[in-house]
Structure formats: C-alpha cells, structure tokens
Amino acid sequence: MQDDILKLWPVILSVVGLIVWLVRLEMKVRFAEQNIIKLNMDNRKQFEGLASSLEKFSCTTLELSQSISELKGIISEMRRG
User: Fold this and answer.
1) Per-residue pLDDT tens over the stretch 7-45
2) What Å distances lie between residue 3 and 6, 7, 8, 9, 11, CA to CA?
3) Residues 39-76: pLDDT tens digits?
4) Residue 36 and residue 30: Cα distance in Å, rounded?
5) How many of the other CB atoms lie within 10 Å of CB of 13?
6) What does DSSP assign to residue 1?
7) pTM of the model as a whole
8) What is the DSSP string of 8-59?
C-alpha cells in the first residue's frame, strides 16, 4: 500500500500543482477583466468629456464666425460711408 502511495506521489503533487496554477490563472483573468471594465468606464468618461468640450468649441466657433461676419458688415458700411 505504501509503495503504491510512493509511486503515486509525483502524480498527486502534479495534480495539486496544476490545481494551484489554474486557480492563480483564474484570479489573473478576473483581475484583468476588472481592469478592462474599469478602463472602459474611464474611456467612456473621457469620451463624454471630449464630446462636451467639442460641442462647446463648436458653439464658440459659430459665435466667432457670426461676430466676424458682423464686423465685416460694419467695416463695409464704414468704407461706404
């Protein structure tokens, strides 16, 4: 009986090592998934911030364009007058 156990010792140790390795691998995968989810949320927040900034920039550019058109009209009137 003891001889059988001694013969199986490397197999038992290998199985235990494989189980430990698989558990560690699963933990790494879960950690990586959590990091991916966090990065996606951070990216979404940054994208929303950029979209908001782009919208403000667009409005400012439109206002600037309108002001330039008004100034152009005023200068044209001044040249005529």
Assistant:
1) 888 899 999 999 999 999 999 999 999 999 999 999 999
2) 5, 6, 9, 10, 14
3) 999 999 999 999 999 999 999 999 999 999 999 999 99
4) 10
5) 10
6) -
7) 0.58
8) HHHHHHHHHHHHHHHHHHHHHHHHHHHHHHHHHHHHHHHHHHHHHHHHHHHH
